[in-house]
Write a structure and sequence with these properties.
Catalyzes the sequential NAD-dependent oxidations of L-histidinol to L-histidinaldehyde and then to L-histidine. By secondary structure, this protein is an alpha/beta fold. It has three domains: 202 residues, Rossmann fold (3-Layer(aba) Sandwich); 143 residues, Nitrogenase molybdenum iron protein domain (Rossmann fold), CATH 3.40.50; 33 residues, no CATH class. It is built from 16 helices and 14 strands.
């Protein structure tokens, strides 16, 4: 890991992916839009090395998935669902209306999005946690139609854990398709997959680029970048635990960013030694080592105030605060996707089980974005109702305001209501 003395602000890039990757994604989207299922099947064969006859996951496949899951794993998934559901239930917002004596009624009507597509990464790995974190808030929001897509294995199936997690959440539409072609199918629709209104869920660079391209045709949650973690620690932190937590994100991706910000030079040195020890016995050592060596950073500063400044500048996806009194620093953290306080709140607690969503803003976007919530699955309509008395009271002011902007028809639309009265029958 690179040891830094200060953080230089870097220009934030507006583009993701290479030109070649963007052009590839654009070509895939166009092909799926024009040729539907056949294009999706062709790309599955090309990229996933699987020949699919049917994109839809049958009930038989789901039932068979249950047979390969042991009861202990099933119980853990169910308990995680309960925790995640309980947390997200507290996020629900209601429609509201206010009334005034003159006959004015104003309000906000909250309506679930009609249909949502959930992308779950797959192929060589299984991510049932992605199913839970994306589907549960949609269910709490009362979305009527939830569609799940995920890349098939070389055997042409989805991982049993993904299927079981989806079934426990009553997802009826599950399709064996991944990559940019899955995003295209969700956005434009095919013979087998009717289009949705919003697409959520993480994926590789091609999925991220595809989501960016289809935004406007559909809504999306966010453009997710590589995983990142910042551990803010003082001399009281345990180096073994800090190193383990940094590696928990480094093993995700060679581009993952594990960062330590500390007031202790001794801790920084010890963490470096611990990283090497733990890397040597990590199954995903090659990936984690590349992440640590290419993107890992350690900042050694004199005061916690300076450390907080670095944290807020990075605006990390995950922030662990491992100091003597972590709760005392919470008011000063302005930018972070999820904040984990204390040594017993290791980042995987939030990834899988505690309840808060693990779909978080990356690449510094925690400056203006929030984690995925129930609010991402509803839309709000303003409601305005004026009585005759209310319009009489304010009509001249409204018409005058319209003319301030040179919009005469706006003004006349108000005034015409009082120029002549049609006899009521």
């Amino acid at each position: 890991m690179k040891v830094m003395k200060k953080r230089d602000r870097k220009q934030r890039s507006k583009d993701i992916g290479t030109l070649e990757q963007r052009q590839t994604v654009q070509s895939i989207l166009k092909d799926v839009k024009e040729h539907g299922d056949q294009a999706v099947i062709n790309y599955s064969e090309k990229f996933d090395k699987v020949q699919l006859k049917d994109l839809f996951v049958s009930r038989q496949e789901v039932d068979e998935a249950y047979q390969s899951i042991n009861q202990s794993d099933l119980d853990i998934i169910k308990e995680a669902i309960n925790n995640i559901s309980s947390f997200h239930e507290k996020q629900k917002i209601q429609s509201w209306f206010s009334y005034e004596e003159a006959g004015t009624m104003l309000g906000q009507k909250v309506t679930p999005i009609d249909s949502v597509g959930v992308y779950v990464p797959g192929g060589t790995a299984a991510y049932p946690s992605s199913v839970l974190m994306n589907v549960v808030p949609a269910l709490v929001a009362e979305v009527n139609r939830i569609v799940l897509v995920s890349p098939p294995t070389k055997g042409g199936a989805l991982h049993p854990l993904v299927l079981v997690a989806a079934d426990l959440l009553r997802v009826k539409e599950i399709y064996k398709v991944g990559g940019a072609q899955a995003i295209a199918a969700l956005a434009y629709g095919t013979e087998s997959i009717p289009p949705v209104d919003k697409i959520v869920g993480p994926g590789n660079i091609f999925v991220a680029l595809a989501k960016k391209e289809v935004f406007g045709t559909v809504a999306i949650d966010m453009i997710a970048g590589p995983s990142e973690i910042v551990v803010l620690a003082d001399e009281t932190a345990d180096a073994r635990e800090v190193a383990a937590d940094l590696l928990s994100q480094a093993e995700h991706d060679e581009l993952a960013k594990p960062i330590l910000v500390t007031t202790s030079e001794l801790l920084a040195e010890t963490v470096q030694s611990e990283l090497e020890k733990q890397l040597s016995v990590l199954p995903r050592e090659i990936i984690a080592r590349r992440s640590i060596e290419d993107h890992g950073e350690i900042y050694v500063v004199d005061q916690l105030e300076e450390a907080i400044g670095i944290v807020n500048d990075i605006a990390p996806e995950h922030l662990e605060v491992m100091t003597k009194q972590p709760i005392d620093l919470l008011p000063y953290v302005r930018h972070a996707g999820a904040i984990f306080l204390g040594r017993y709140s290791s980042e995987p607690v939030g990834d899988y089980f505690a309840g808060p969503n693990h779909v978080l803003p990356t690449s510094g976007t925690a400056r203006f974005l929030s984690p995925l919530t129930v609010n991402d699955f509803v839309k709000k309509s303003s409601v305005i109702s004026y009585s005759e008395a209310a319009l009489k009271q304010h009509g001249k002011k409204i018409a005058q305001f319209a003319r301030l902007e040179g919009l005469e028809a706006h003004a006349r639309a108000i005034e015409i209501r009082f120029e002549s009265r049609i006899k009521k029958v």
